Amino acid sequence: MYRALVMKCALAVASIAALPGCATIVGDETHVLPITSSPNEAAVVIIDEKGAEVFRGTTPTSATLKKSDGSYWGGKTHTVRLSKDGYDPQVIPVTPHPNGWYIGGNIVFGGLIGWFLVDPWNGKMYNLSPQNVEASLPTRPPPR
What we know:
Layout: H1 2-18, H2 22-26, E1 30-38, E2 43-48, E3 53-58, E4 61-66, E5 78-83, E6 90-98, H3 100-118, E7 126-129, E8 133-136
Parallel strand pairs: 1-8
Antiparallel strand pairs: 1-4, 2-3, 2-5, 5-6, 6-7
């Protein structure tokens, strides 16, 4: 009898875990971040929250960024650094925020299962902000 109860509980937990949340169904694990600058051909380096370089390029370009580190509530943050000789560098933070499917979709369809068991385990519940980077690098004054 005890064994049957344990089996039923295990089956119930497995069934609940298999149900997807709304953001999991319609979201993406990555975000393509378009990056432009004025002037063009600025060097771009993107660092994640752990200090790891995840992208290097020259504007105009696009970088594919992960939205989550794979842990529970593990939204990833990034720092975009743009630089060019003769110009002041720009540093732009890119941060995760819950998307509408996570918030609204789980109210209508997923409920607590989507909010707390399914969607927090993947990056599909997040949008990255800003959605694109358009940097204007100010001219560096000449040395005196």
